[in-house]
Amino acid sequence: MKIKLNQSGLKKATRQAGQHVAAEYQSRLDEVHRDYAGRSVEEVKPVLAAAWASVGGRLSDEELVRCAQAISDGQPVVMRVKDA
């Protein structure tokens, strides 16, 4: 038995799934930004790490510091989904 895959449909489904996941992460980033903008990086880091982990992710130390610094500086962090 052979199964044919619709490449276009598969790409669309993958893109939609990626956008859904990114929206979950973005929601957490927005919450941390709203509640912690202007606070010290050291205050933001553990909250950001916990928020990220709550949706199943983990930031590298470099990413955690970079994002925490942006939030501390009052700058929003925006998720972007790249097309493959």
Please describe what this structure looks like.
With about 80 residues, the protein is mainly α. It has one domain (about 10-70). The protein contains 3 helices and no strands. It has helices at about 5-35, 40-55, 60-70. Helix 2 packs across helix 3 (about 60-70). The protein is elongated, with a radius of gyration of 16 Å. The mean pLDDT is about 90.
Topology diagram in text:
Layout: H1 7-36, H2 41-53, H3 61-72
Helix pairs in contact: 1-2, 2-3
Quick rundown:
With 84 residues, the protein is mostly helical.
Structural class: mainly alpha
Question: Which spans have pLDDT < 50 for at least 5 consecutive residues?
Answer: none
Distance between the termini: 29 Å
Residues in helices, as a percent range: 55-70%
H-E order: HHH
Count of structural domains:
1
What are the defining features of this structure?
single chain; mainly alpha; 84 residues; elongated
